[in-house]
Amino acid sequence: MTSNRLEAFSDGVLAIIITIMVLELVSPDQVTLESLIPIVPTIVSYFFSFIYIGIYWNNHHHLFQVTQKINGKILWSNLHLLFWLSLIPFSTTWIGENYMEAVPVALYGFILLMSAIAFYILQRTIIKSHKENFVLRKAVGTDSKGKLSIALYTFGLLISFLNTWAAIGIYIIVAIIWFIPDSRIEKNLDKTKKGVPPAK
Amino acid sequence: MTSNRLEAFSDGVLAIIITIMVLELVSPDQVTLESLIPIVPTIVSYFFSFIYIGIYWNNHHHLFQVTQKINGKILWSNLHLLFWLSLIPFSTTWIGENYMEAVPVALYGFILLMSAIAFYILQRTIIKSHKENFVLRKAVGTDSKGKLSIALYTFGLLISFLNTWAAIGIYIIVAIIWFIPDSRIEKNLDKTKKGVPPAK
Amino acid sequence: MTSNRLEAFSDGVLAIIITIMVLELVSPDQVTLESLIPIVPTIVSYFFSFIYIGIYWNNHHHLFQVTQKINGKILWSNLHLLFWLSLIPFSTTWIGENYMEAVPVALYGFILLMSAIAFYILQRTIIKSHKENFVLRKAVGTDSKGKLSIALYTFGLLISFLNTWAAIGIYIIVAIIWFIPDSRIEKNLDKTKKGVPPAK
Amino acid sequence: MTSNRLEAFSDGVLAIIITIMVLELVSPDQVTLESLIPIVPTIVSYFFSFIYIGIYWNNHHHLFQVTQKINGKILWSNLHLLFWLSLIPFSTTWIGENYMEAVPVALYGFILLMSAIAFYILQRTIIKSHKENFVLRKAVGTDSKGKLSIALYTFGLLISFLNTWAAIGIYIIVAIIWFIPDSRIEKNLDKTKKGVPPAK
Fold first, then answer.
1. pLDDT tens, residue by residue, C8-65
2. Least enclosed by CB within 10 Å: which of A54, B155, C85, D150?
3. Which pLDDT belongs to residue A190?
4. CB of A162 within 8 Å of any CB in chain D?
């Protein structure tokens, strides 16, 4: 089984997730510049969710570029990731309307946390299904970036009950950490192609 | 005619079906943890429908991996399957809001039943369109799994008028039966590739 | 320019059109079997629109299978077709709620008519962009099927102001005419491949 | 990294953007021809947005046809473009309902302007990531068409506060300028293939 159709299906789901959020942007009843102000938080939350989905698409792309075979476990780990990501639009609408309230901010963090854990599981599952000298194993290493994200999301989700702005700040820090695509995989992949043994 | 474009189109439809269900998750008016409780059944029903669509995508993937040619009959059998699957989001919303009522539970079972029958027809149509030594024919055999699903869905749909929880339990049993991807096809395909004659 | 990406984009649009119609199926407030009766016309109209889109996907598939090159004119003729097809969900909802009223039935016929004309234009544009011995030219011939559809839709749309059932009957006749995929192209394509000169 | 998956993902997002606008077309409560009149502006605005998205899909297609490699910067420039384009449905609904009001017309122009700037940035990013004799560099040249669009959108957006029809007229002029696919790239690409050095 090749990864082509799994990638195509995931691309479809991610494209829909990233786009349907905009359906929640309801055009204002009035036609003044002021009437746009109430939807600014919704647009801002849409903007951030767009970036989060973009980061996942990016990393998903990198992950399956090196994946050589697909089995049932990888397939379901992938669907598990897509499930949590598919809840982002719902949570985005809620946080957009209530960005100063603890529960919506905590729920947003919870869904980001579960997505991060799902991505971690997917990565582990792919590594386990491949041989020892698999390029991803070397590239990911201890995956400190993935573990740090999980820790930060947990921290942000808890702190949202004390201060929502602090929680949102922490979520944004994770986005910045991941904004740059995972160059570790790309570098190792390039080395392998050139016949140079991948870095340990 | 190759199966590439049929698979791409089906992937698109399945990706949309699996994702638009989330549009029915309306963010609560209040911002307490308690305000999330009323939407828990909707999320749970979404979760199960997600798994059902995932199983169909999985089996669809396996089916067309071995399909060598496409004709008009296969094409319409495939659209017939997609039609019934496309009704799952509607039924999911209804059962999510009324999981203790007989009619929504029965309707959910009915749509799952029709989807199972449509998949069975699609499989038969593909087998009939191929030659005698076609790998799928050997792999599927008497298709006891498919027939069992149809029997269980019929039973669940009828029993929902007596006890909705029993009906839901039966639907979940079918999901568990199918959760593991159809290893019969994969094994036979692998054998064929390796030059070993497929099992009878 | 190859037709791959044009086909992928069209597949995406058609997959969305065929699926979003189901979003209009609103789950009933009550939970009796009777409460499903008011949505039966909507489901029936959804069923027919599903078949119409299926036919167009089918014929679109056949058309681009033989298309060897894409230019700007073909691209815009294709988008023109997608535009009219994208109005089918809107019209389907309206006719589903008012299947005994002249204007919704006429509008449905009008959109089917414009789609048929757009498909005819697309076919002509593709033929004009290819050389004389192009397989599609021979296969399509005088395209009596296409011209008949346009005549029937015009007739149905006009008759809907007298009798909506007669108009709906005519629309269904066109669907039956097209239900079988365009075997003319397939046969000619097969012949060409086998070195046999295509039928005149 | 090849551009295949980036193109597939972008196709998915563009297909959704171009199609979901139709969800805003609410079927009228009444069934007279007159009842369709209030939704005519919405259909007209949908028609124009359809053309704008079509133009972007077209130019995007041309752009990535010549792009030989993808990196993180190109990926995020592409997502940046998709973000602005994804706001077109929201803006289309608003302008459709209020086409004689300054703010919705200005907002529509603003989103078109930001999309044009995003496309310009994407083009620059791709050129910078390739070598000196890259075909796109020669083809695009000083990109007077891109710069003119940005100037016209800015002008239209400002003038909308004086006269909405004048602003809409300017937006349509930009659409006409871009309606013809970017033949510069196509011509240069053809020349390069034929071994003729591309025009300076």
1. 899 999 999 998 888 878 888 888 888 888 888 888 989 999 999 999 998 898 888 8
2. B155
3. 52
4. no
C176 in contact with B, Cβ within 8 Å: no
Q: Does D176 touch chain C (CB under 8 A)?
A: no
d(CA D53, CA D58): 8
Q: Do C20 and D20 touch (CB under 8 A)?
A: yes
Mutate to test the interface with A, among D16, D25, D88 (most CBs of A within 10 A): D16
Residue range(s) defining the domain that contains residue B157? 4-193
What is the pLDDT, as a whole number, of residue A182? 52
C164-191 pLDDT per residue, tens: 999 999 999 998 888 765 555 555 555 5
| CA–CA gap between residue B185 and residue B126 (Å, rounded) | 14
**Looking at this predicted complex, what is its ipTM?**
0.85
Tokens 């921290």, located at residue: A155
In a domain, D198, yes or no: no
First to last CA, chain B: 29
* Residue C63 belongs to some domain of the structure: yes
Q: In this complex, which of A8, A97, A103 lies closest to B11 when CB atoms are compared?
A: A8
Tokens of D66: 């010549």
Residue B30: CB atoms within 10 A of its CB come to 11
- Which subunits count as partners of chain B given 3+ CB pairs below 8 Å? A, C
Report the alpha-carbon distance of residue D18 to residue D8 in Å, rounded: 15
Touching C: D residues 96-115, CB under 8 Å? none
- Domain total of chain D: 1
| C contacts of B102 (beta carbons < 8 Å) | 31
Are the C-beta atoms of C143 and C134 separated by less than 8 Å?
A: no
List CB contacts (< 8 A) between A5 and chain B. Answer: 7, 11, 61
Cβ count near D193 (within 10 Å): 9
Residue A143: which region, alpha, beta or left (left: phi > 0; alpha: psi -120 to 50)?
Answer: left
CB–CB of D18 and C13 under 8 A? yes
Residue at B78 is within a domain: yes
Neighbours, chain A (3 or more CB pairs < 8 A): B, D
Q: What is the CA radius of gyration of chain D?
A: 19
Size of interface C-D (CB pairs under 8 A): 70
C-alpha span between C48 and B196 (Å, rounded): 47
A19 touches chain D (CB under 8 A): yes
- How many Å from the N-terminal Cα to the C-terminal Cα in chain A? 29
Among the listed residues B16, B9, B130, the one whose alpha carbon sits nearest the alpha carbon of residue B73: B130
Indicate whether B75 belongs to any domain: yes
pLDDT tens for D63-87 read 888 887 888 889 899 999 999 999 9
CA-based nearest residue to D164, from D105, D112, D108: D105
Residue D121, Cβ density class (10 Å: 0-12 exposed, 13-18 middle, ≥19 buried)? middle
Contact of B91 with B114, CB cutoff 8 Å: no
Q: Residue ranges of the alpha helices (H) in C67-182?
A: 72-86, 88-97, 102-128, 135-140, 144-159, 164-179
Contact B91, C31 (CB under 8 A): no
